[in-house]
Structure formats: C-alpha cells, structure tokens
C-alpha cells in the first residue's frame, strides 16, 4: 500500500520482474481498489501466484464510522499494534477533502489541541498513510454510489506533525501524485506544520506540495505558550523558511492557520500585528474558530470578534477566510482528533454498519 512507483519497481526487480510491472499494478490497487493479486488480469497467473506468496496489500482496519449531519465522516482505524488513528472526509460543493493523520498522537504539545493531550506513540508508515486514502476513496465510491474519483484534495491536517515524519510522508505523497495511482496535482495536496523549520526545505525537495503553517499568534511571547515548538524555531525563522518555500513560484502562497481563541489571540491589535508580520510573505490566512474538546481551558472567539479580526486582515490586503466548522457534532473538527488508543479495548468503540 505504501510503495511508490520507484519502490514497487525495486520490489518487482527483487522478484526478477521488470520495472513496468509497477505501472501495471499501481492502477489496480489505487484506482480500482483491488487487493487480490489473482484479480489483476494483465499481470499473468504466474506472477500473481508469486505475489500471493510474497506480499499483501492492506489498509488499516475500520473500527468505526461516524457520519455528521453535514456529510462529514470520521473514521477510526485500528493499526496492527493496537494503536488507532482518525481520518476525516469533508464534502464541499466544489471539492471533496480528506484530512489524514501522519502520526499516532503528536509530540508537539500545542496548548489548544486535543491530539496533544494523547501524547505521542509513533510515526505512521507510508502504507498506513496511503491506506487512509485508499480506504476513503473506495469506501466512498461504494456508499455514495460514485463510479469515478471521489477525493479531490488531501490535507495532512489530522493527527500528528507530518514534518516530523517526512521519511514516510514523502513516499506517501509520491503515491498521491502519481498518475498511475491517485494522480492528484501537487496544489491539491496540503501539508500542515506547526513550524518544524529545518524540515520545510526537505519537504520542498522531496514533495513540493502546498504548505500550511499553524501560526496562531502574531508574536513570539504568545506563540511560545500556544505552540511550544516556537521556542526552538521562533516566528522570524519560520517566516524566512516560508519565503524560501515559495521562492521562484509567483503563484504560490503559504496558508497560515490561526485558531480563534477568545481573549487570547483575537484582539484587533493582534490582527494588526498579524497583518504587519505577514506583509513580507505570500500569504493567505485561514481563521479557524476554536473547536472545544473535553478538559480544555480555551473558549471559541465570538463570531463578531472573528469577523472584526478578518476585516482588519482584509483591509490590510491579506487574503483571509474563516474556516467553516465541519463535523464538530462528531468530534471531527480541527484539533478534535484523538484516536490514539494504544491497547484501548475495541469494545468501547461502536462499530457502525458500513
Ligand atoms: N501538526 C500539524 C498538522 C495538524 S493540522 C500542524 O500543527 O499544523 C490541524 C490544525 O488545526 C492546526 O492548524 C492546528 O493548530 C489546528 N488546531 C488544533 N487544535 C485546534 C482546535 N481545538 N480548534 C481549532 N483548530 C485547532
């Protein structure tokens, strides 16, 4: 599931097969959802039998599905070591976005994020990352009755910090972009980071997809408390890395995410400071109304405070949108994912009919 074309060709070479086998097999798996070697009619019975003995194609196991009134779906997937992760499907009129996880839990400890409370267990493998996309695409085709591609956009905005797992994230992205697999354009794949500065250049080299940065504060003093990795890589370094990321591509912008926390970062003065800060970066701003979760101290900013904040940014010439809250009735909204459940008995999880 996680082998990109190069790795699959190498795997085939190990079986004494030619590289073009990778191009025959990828569409079966990713475009047609076939995992049974014997059903891949163009590879020959002999090779199918040898693959049967050598390899399995498998996605993480579905433990539960929750469907929100707005069509948002959240899936809990069980991994072979007893951990579990969450993935969210967000249908919109002009696109269908899948929000995927890159780690079990997260080590970055952002103050306002539910995933942080779970701690960090481990990196996902490329197979576990692509497996979320594979499951979503083929499951949705079945339940929605589509016979063509459902997913148009992929965002690495689920559990985990993707830039701390580039070893697996980069080959996973290669599968998403490969025309023999998902064939997504690199602008329709977005990696979001809390600001792991040294990894940004590595992402650009390995998989130059769209980049989103979780900013959440206009100054270091506040950002240090909300996004602790800021103490290591302060805002000035982060923005310099952002400028480098889009350098040479006039069409590209960095998306800055900003969770609206009442009384913490939503003051008009902070909006003006943010506008000044982002003057030197090709930017668009995504304001995210804070999504509460059990045990949090933070409160969502009032709608009027969010509108005022947005208007200040717009007046300063910054492209700004308020992210519509989706799937919060099923704890599927930004910052609410918390599927890390090492050894949690699966009994507590409701298995919905799928
Ligand atoms: N670790 C990466 C990927 C997660 S993306 C990153 O930090 O960018 C998830 C986005 O939702 C991030 O911008 C995150 O800061 C934001 N977020 C986290 N908790 C939130 C909450 N409770 N309400 C709204 N947004 C939240």
Number of helices: 11
Which ligands occur here? S-adenosyl-L-homocysteine
Coarse structural class:
alpha/beta
What is the general shape? globular
| Name of the CATH homologous superfamily of the largest domain | Aldolase class I
The helix/strand series, from N terminus to C terminus, equals HHHEEEEEHEHEHEHEHHEHEHE
Number of domains: 2
CATH architecture call of the largest domain: Alpha-Beta Barrel
Q: Could you characterize the architecture of this molecule?
A:
This protein folds into two domains: 5-54, DNA polymerase, domain 1; 61-353, Aldolase class I (TIM Barrel), CATH 3.20.20.70. α1 packs across α2 (20-31) and α5 packs parallel to α6. It is α/β, with parallel strands linked by helices and 354 residues long. The protein is globular, with a radius of gyration of 21 Å. It has helices at residues 5-14, 20-31, 45-54, 114-117, 126-144, 166-177, 197-206, 220-226, 235-246, 268-277, 303-315; strands at 61-67, 73-78, 84-91, 96-99, 103-105, 120-123, 153-156, 189-193, 210-214, 254-260, 283-289, 319-322. 34% of the residues lie in helices and 18% in strands. Bound molecules: S-adenosyl-L-homocysteine (SAH). S-adenosyl-L-homocysteine binds next to β8 and β10.
């Amino acid at each position: 599931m996680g082998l990109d074309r190069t790795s699959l060709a190498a795997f085939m070479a190990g079986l004494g097969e030619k590289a073009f086998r990778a191009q025959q097999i990828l569409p079966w798996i990713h475009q047609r959802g076939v995992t049974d070697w014997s059903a891949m009619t163009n590879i020959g019975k002999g090779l199918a039998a040898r693959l049967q003995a050598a390899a399995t194609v498998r996605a993480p196991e579905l433990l539960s599905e929750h469907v929100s009134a707005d069509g948002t779906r959240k899936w809990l997937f069980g991994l072979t070591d007893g951990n579990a992760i969450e993935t969210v499907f967000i249908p919109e009129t002009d696109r269908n976005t899948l929000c995927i996880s890159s780690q079990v839990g997260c080590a970055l400890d952002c103050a306002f994020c539910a995933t942080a409370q779970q701690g960090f267990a481990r990196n996902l493998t490329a197979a576990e990352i692509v497996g979320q996309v594979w499951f979503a695409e083929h499951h949705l085709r079945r339940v929605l009755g589509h016979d063509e591609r459902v997913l148009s956009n992929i965002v690495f905005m689920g559990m985990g910090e993707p830039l701390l797992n580039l070893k697996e994230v980069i080959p996973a992205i290669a599968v998403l972009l490969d025309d023999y697999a998902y064939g997504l354009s690199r602008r329709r794949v977005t990696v979001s980071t809390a600001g792991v500065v040294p990894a940004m250049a590595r992402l650009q080299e390995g998989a130059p997809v769209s980049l989103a940065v979780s900013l959440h504060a206009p100054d270091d003093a506040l950002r240090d408390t909300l996004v602790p990795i800021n103490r290591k890589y302060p805002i000035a370094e982060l923005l310099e890395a952002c400028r480098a990321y889009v350098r040479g591509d006039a069409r590209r912008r960095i998306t800055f995410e900003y969770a609206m926390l009442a009384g913490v970062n939503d003051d008009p003065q902070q909006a003006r400071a943010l506008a000044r800060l982002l003057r030197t970066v090709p930017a668009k701003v995504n304001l995210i109304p804070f999504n509460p979760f059990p045990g949090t101290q933070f409160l969502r900013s009032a709608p009027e405070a969010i509108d005022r904040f947005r208007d200040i940014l717009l007046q300063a010439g910054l492209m700004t949108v308020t992210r519509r809250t989706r799937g919060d009735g099923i704890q599927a909204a930004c910052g609410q994912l918390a599927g890390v459940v090492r050894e949690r008995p699966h009994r507590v999880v409701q298995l919905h009919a799928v």
